[in-house]
Automatic annotation (TrEMBL):
CDD domains: PRTases_typeI
Coiled-coil annotated residue ranges, if any: none
Catalytic activity, reaction form: IMP + diphosphate = hypoxanthine + 5-phospho-alpha-D-ribose 1-diphosphate; GMP + diphosphate = guanine + 5-phospho-alpha-D-ribose 1-diphosphate
An MF annotation (GO) of this entry: magnesium ion binding
Keywords: Glycosyltransferase, Transferase
Keyword Lipoprotein in annotation: no
Domain Phosphoribosyltransferase as annotated: residue spans: 21-167
One Gene Ontology term, aspect cellular component: cytosol
Enzyme Commission code: 2.4.2.8
A single BP term in Gene Ontology: GMP salvage
Pfam families from the UniProt entry: Pribosyltran
The name this protein goes by in its record: Hypoxanthine phosphoribosyltransferase
Natural source organism: Marinomonas ushuaiensis DSM 15871
């Protein structure tokens, strides 16, 4: 256990903070105004993509001053790894999706496979509309065709953790967004 704590503390000590708390809050404020303009009269269902979407979803919905419902979906393709593979569907929303305006919130749009698959699945459930939001868009040319409707900020192509994103399951709780040394 001591080894693990030492290793994790070293990772954090050596990491670069790419987006600090102030920048995250500015990004969330901007996203919240855009979402309010589009969805405030739609009684939307907000779907948090677990686990990474937990913290961004909480921070975003407290900025939305209109009636909405909240549920979650759990799909993961990275697990404890830094490279994504196939998407594993772990949990589906319990709320009825038919004729609902749905806002999906996640922490990061990397290659886009996760959000693309979730959007496609939601459309197949008879939703009226599906909007997608992520705090981070990672910059590279390995993307799927879709683009999230609301993006907080662009970040360089390194392995990130903090603010929902994990390093080996840890550090989702950090208030900033960090990149691992050498990534
Ligand atoms: O755009 P993509 O390349 O598909 O990657 C983005 C996804 O990867 C992360 O989830 P992960 O699978 O690590 O699960 P987690 O949310 O439990 O960390 C993140 O939370 C997104 O859902
Ligand atoms: N923690 C973490 N999860 C991811 N999922 C997709 N890209 C990333 C990343 O850079 N960091």
């Amino acid at each position: 256990m001591t080894n693990t704590i030492n290793e994790l503390n070293k990772i954090l000590d050596e990491a670069d903070c790419l987006v600090d708390e102030t920048k995250i809050n500015e990004a969330l404020d901007k996203m919240a105004s855009q979402i309010t303009a589009d969805l405030s009269d739609k009684l939307p269902l907000v779907l948090c993509v677990m686990n990474g979407g937990l913290i961004p979803t909480a921070a975003l919905i407290e900025r939305l001053n209109f009636p909405l419902e909240l549920d979650y979906i759990h799909a993961t393709r990275y697990g404890m790894e830094t490279e994504g593979t196939q998407l594993n569907w772990l949990s589906y929303p319990q709320t009825s999706l038919k004729n609902r305006h749905v806002l999906v919130v996640d922490d990061i749009f990397d290659q886009g496979h996760t959000l693309e698959a979730i959007q496609k699945w939601l459309e197949e459930q008879g939703t009226s509309s599906v909007h997608t939001a992520t705090i981070i868009n990672k910059l590279h040319d390995r993307k799927t065709n879709m683009q999230p409707d609301y993006v907080g900020t662009d970040v360089v192509d390194r392995f990130l953790f903090g603010y929902g994103m994990d390093y080996k399951g840890y550090f989702r709780n950090l208030k900033g967004i960090y990149a691992i040394k050498g990534s």
